[in-house]
Write a structure and sequence with these properties.
By secondary structure, the chain is of the alpha/beta class. Helix content is 47%, strand content 11%.
Length: 485
């Protein structure tokens, strides 16, 4: 155990760096959510200090651990952690101008704006479901390239709201079914929602719920650094996804607002901030981080330096191989456009006559033969969507070498998981359902559009003349609504 870990006061103060940057930024903006960053600061500090595989000097390292803040209203926790860790996209002016037009620090994390933000989050549970996609991508790519190239974890922070959303059931059930052992979720169990105590609306036994999915569950004090660290070490040994339920206090350190809904979505106020500084022994001005603490934070990543150098050395040959380039390049295969023309002409000349979904299947067969990294799937409508071509192999628990996913009747999870597959890099996902069921997929489709990521949807049965199924399955307005997205 390092000296800094022995000195709990120092670790408390390192966590307070996150707390007070978050408190001060929200106060400056006169809006925001200070409670979650204050409550989860200890977890984030332990994770960055001792467990997260990351390198701010190489933020796009393909084998970095992924950290996703699904409870994205607590964006200041992520911005503060990235700034403290030395990510060059962020400076102190960005934090001082949190939520202000023209600055990178939006009210919720936005993909593509800052290195270290893996996905756009905010609509609750989307990040959690994306995390399932990231973890699945890791397994798929590891089966293609081996552990020397791909061997990393996906960490997700999620709150009560994320777990209340129905999407969490779809995605976490799916993750348990596939045994995604490199997925570790920290549940911010603070028992507070916007309306007040969670017992106003929820009486679930969360641990039993996740046990039933086939996850491993661990329960810890979310402010006990040693217990948090031990939980992460144990989670990494599991052969299943892990939920670490962290009992935390929202607004930790605020004498009058700790463990209350009032710290969730409003600034603490100047008077309460002074009291919080006094209680947590933080005798510094707004946005002031002592050099000693900043230096410690900015050295956290250096424990990964040897790992990165070794990875770079051992992976050089594969990174320069055609196979790797075919997976990770944004360029199309050579002569693809010409082959598409020939493919189309051959069917014109043959006067091919078939249903449009059969034509879709033949088209998918053409593209999957050209893109080894195309991963298909369907939300339990494979035979109707015609999304599985004859040469495709099903991805299963303990065998991720295939290229087709049975998502089950989980349309929303399918769309959100595909976002994670795409965001990870190296995979081109497509998934199918009936056009009318884009109603279930809509939040994830909208986020894919906001992030401008190349996720492909195969939506069949798009006619108002479906007849036999009746009006529930007639997608009269869906094309118009999707075009508006």
């Amino acid at each position: 155990m390092s000296n800094i870990h022995k000195n709990s006061n120092i670790l408390d103060q390192l966590a307070n760096c996150i707390r007070f940057l978050s408190i001060d930024a929200v106060q400056n903006a006169k809006s925001g959510h200070p409670g979650m960053p204050m409550g989860m600061a200890d977890i984030a500090t332990v994770l960055f200090k001792d467990h997260l595989k990351f390198n701010p000097q190489e933020p796009n390292w393909i084998d970095r651990d992924r950290l996703i803040i699904s409870n994205g209203h607590g964006s200041m926790l992520l911005y503060a952690s990235l700034f403290l860790s030395g990510y060059k996209d962020l400076n102190i002016e960005d934090l001082k101008n949190f939520r202000q037009l023209g600055y990178l620090t939006a009210g919720h994390p936005e993909y593509g704006e800052i290195a270290g933000i893996e996905t756009t989050t905010g609509p609750l549970s989307q990040g959690l479901a994306n995390g399932v996609g990231f973890a699945l991508a890791e397994k798929i790519l590891q089966s293609k390239f081996g552990k020397k190239i791909i061997d990393h974890y996906t960490f997700v922070f999620a709150g009560d709201g994320c777990l209340m959303e129905g999407l969490s059931h779809e995605a976490c059930s799916f993750a348990g079914h596939l045994g995604l052992s490199k997925l570790i979720v920290f549940f911010d169990d603070n028992s507070i929602s916007i309306d007040g105590s969670t017992n106003l609306s929820v009486s679930d036994d969360t641990l039993k719920r996740f046990d039933s999915y086939g996850w491993t569950t661990i329960s810890v004090d979310g402010h006990d650094h040693k217990k948090i660290s031990e939980a992460i070490v144990n989670a990494k040994k599991n052969n299943s996804p892990t939920l670490i339920s962290c009992k935390t206090k929202i607004g930790f350190g605020s004498p009058n607002k700790e463990s209350t809904a009032s710290s969730h979505g409003s600034p603490l106020g100047e008077d309460e901030i002074l009291l919080t500084r006094e209680k947590l022994k933080w005798n510094y001005k707004p946005f002031e981080i002592p050099e000693e603490y900043l230096t410690l934070w900015r050295n956290f990543y250096k424990r990964n330096t040897d790992t990165y150098i070794k990875w770079e050395s051992t992976s050089k040959e594969i990174l320069n191989s055609n196979k790797y380039k075919n997976f990770f390049s944004k360029d199309s295969p050579i002569n693809l456009n010409q082959e598409i023309k020939e493919f189309k002409l051959s069917h014109i000349n043959k006067l091919t006559s078939c249903a449009t979904r059969k034509a879709s299947e033949m088209t998918l067969e053409f593209f999957t033969s050209h893109y080894e990294n195309m991963i298909g799937g369907s939300a339990d409508l494979t035979g109707s969507n015609n999304t599985k071509t004859k040469n495709m192999k099903v991805i299963k628990k303990n065998d991720f070498s295939g290229n087709y996913i049975h998502y089950g009747v989980r349309e929303h999870a399918m769309a959100a998981v595909m976002n994670g597959l795409s965001l990870h890099g190296g995979i081109k996902p497509y998934g199918g359902t009936f056009l009318v069921f884009t109603d279930y997929c809509r939040p994830a489709i909208r986020l894919a559009a906001l992030m401008k990521i190349p996720v492909i949807y195969v939506m069949t049965h798009d006619s108002i003349g479906l007849g036999e199924d009746g009006p529930t399955h007639q997608p009269v307005e869906h094309l118009a609504s999707l075009r508006s997205i």
